[in-house]
Design a protein that fits this description.
Radius of gyration: 24 Å
Order of helices and strands: EEEEEHHHHHEHEEEEEHHHHHHHHHHHHH
Helix content: 40-55%
Oligomer: single chain
InterPro entries: Gramillin-biosynth_MTr, SET_dom, SET_dom_sf
Organism: Tetradesmus obliquus
Strand content: 5-15%
Protein name: SET domain-containing protein
Distance between the termini: 14 Å
Largest sheet: 4 strands, antiparallel
Strand order of the largest sheet: 1-4-10-9
Number of strands: 11
Bound molecules: S-adenosylmethionine
Structural class: alpha+beta
């Protein structure tokens, strides 16, 4: 597989209070590959579901055989920002300007050598005798600085991509690593890049929407917490990354009518009072009256708050995109309402998964939950049609469009496929590799629906792929390198 690759992006000059960021060098269509990033040192893998922390990665680097090379240390030093280091530093919080070229191994290596030639810095005792380490000492971070860099920049996931691991016939694992290009992206609660994908130990990032030249590319640091209200998101970002988010979703939420804020807070308090395992336990015990009564109460109360939010949105919010951002901040409650409703009624709500998918798309576009929910929605619709259910009334609820949306999200995540066979393989792997997800609310068990979905995907052919490319505007874009990488999955 190709090593490091830098696409049509560059590092922006540092701004006070925000530091550096990544910007588009040209107009970008959805699904454009921004870069393939190589990890500093190596990535650490753990058991599926394990919550690997930055300190585990540091420990791994210290104890693993290859450790950190001189070049790795140069790269890490470039990510160091004065404000995140020791309190003794009185320098401004604005980090120095850098470019992606600085992270190429040859550039880092020559920087390490130059530093060595100038005789800067003695090698730390623990690395004495190693010329490269001596060279790196010129840019050596203190332990405290190194910890700050890793805490702020490491990227981890408690499960590797289900579809890719399934296609590769590997076991899903947890993983943590530090990918320098990715770590230069600033945060937004409504990011314009797709959730990153780890393929072996490379991280791939793509755009999720049209991004004009010069616009900053953003990712979400919040994972599932992106579906929480602004107050909770701000607390987490402040606590873990030390900044106050001023993204467009946060601004819109800050300016929202007080009753909307109050409803979102009430929704958050209510949905946090029951977690996914507790909900599943209640459902498992549904035969008993107390559990059914509890589920009914949960459903009714959730329904009331969801309706209250809808009424308030209708009253105060005119822009559909703003309404969607605000709904996304009550994601957990909507999921709770839909799931309990389906369970109590004993029927699947065909539109429910799609509504959830549209909200996940706000804060984690082309993430696995997003794909799973889109897939779930298409499977449910196929099942309903097979059972002779009513035809969809709204044009956006046709199965053709559901499939097109799934194809689009697959293309954002895995790259535009060259042929439908590959797409069908990916979609099949997605469905076949389903395990209960962190949302705890996704359940794809309709084998018949799944089969139909596969057939539809294959039949949709270029029509569906065309719809995938045009959703979000603009023409389709070929990324040959992506296609060849994906080809290796087969
Ligand atoms: C992973 S780094 C991103 C790159 C960083 N800006 C730099 O110059 O190295 C995370 C840090 O960037 C800054 N940052 C990220 N997103 C931000 C945002 N939306 N607003 C302000 N600062 C942000 C914060 O200081 C945060 O701790």
């Amino acid at each position: 597989m190709n090593d490091r690759h830098i696409g049509p992006v560059e590092v922006s000059p540092p701004q006070p209070g925000r530091g550096r960021g990544v910007v588009a060098r040209e107009d970008l269509q959805p699904g454009s590959l921004l870069f393939v990033s190589e990890p500093v040192g190596s990535v650490l893998e753990g058991q599926l579901g394990q919550q690997l922390q930055p300190q585990h990665l540091l420990q791994h680097w210290k104890t693993s055989q290859q450790g950190l090379s001189a070049e790795d240390r140069v790269k890490l030093s470039l990510l160091h920002r004065p404000s995140s280091s020791s309190s003794s530093s009185s320098s401004s919080s604005t980090p120095p300007p850098i470019s992606f070229k600085d992270f190429s191994t040859s550039k880092a290596s020559s920087k390490a050598k130059k530093a060595s030639a100038k005789g800067f810095g003695a090698a730390p005792a623990k690395q004495a005798g190693n010329a490269a380490a001596a060279a790196a000492a010129a840019v050596e971070l203190t332990d405290e600085q190194l910890e700050a860099v890793v805490a702020c920049n490491a990227y981890g996931d408690d499960h590797t991509d289900a579809t890719l691991t399934y296609c590769r016939q590997e076991q899903q694992r947890s993983v943590i690593g530090l990918f320098p290009e990715f770590s230069l992206l600033n945060h937004s609660c409504a990011p314009n890049t797709a959730a990153p994908v780890l393929l072996r130990d490379r991280l791939l990032l793509r755009t999720a929407v049209v991004v004009p030249a010069g616009q900053e590319l953003t990712t979400s640091y919040l994972s599932t917490a992106g579906g929480m209200p602004r107050q909770q998101r701000q607390q987490l970002l402040q606590q873990h990354y030390g900044f106050v988010c001023g993204c467009h979703r946060c601004k819109a939420e800050e300016q929202a009518a007080p009753d909307i804020t109050a409803t979102l807070q009430a929704m958050h308090a209510f949905s946090s009072s029951i977690d996914a395992p507790q909900l599943l336990q209640l459902m498992a015990a549904a035969g008993d009256e107390a559990s059914t009564a509890k589920l009914t109460t949960l459903h009714q109360q959730a329904g009331k708050l969801v309706q209250q939010l809808e009424d308030q949105l209708q009253q105060h919010v005119t822009e559909p995109v703003v309404a969607q951002w605000l709904r996304a901040s009550g994601y957990d409650m909507l999921a709770l309402m839909l799931r309990t409703g389906e369970f109590l009624a004993g029927v699947k709500d065909v539109a429910a998964a799609k509504r959830l998918a549209e909200l996940v798309r706000v804060f984690a576009p082309a993430s696995e939950p997003h794909l799973l929910l889109l897939s779930d929605s298409a499977v449910r619709a196929a099942e309903a049609a097979a059972a002779g259910g009513p035809a969809p009334t709204a044009p956006e609820d046709t199965q053709e469009l559901r499939v097109a949306q799934l194809v689009r999200a697959l293309a954002l995540r895995y790259g535009e496929p060259r042929d439908m066979d590959l797409l069908t393989t990916l979609a099949g792997a997605l469905s076949a590799s389903l395990t209960p997800h962190w949302l705890g609310l996704i359940d794809l068990d309709g084998a018949m629906g799944l089969q139909q979905l596969m057939q539809q995907l294959a039949a949709a052919g270029s029509a569906a792929a065309g719809a995938a490319g045009s959703d979000g505007g603009g023409s389709r874009r070929k990324v040959e390198m992506d296609a060849s990488q994906l080809g290796q999955l087969q």
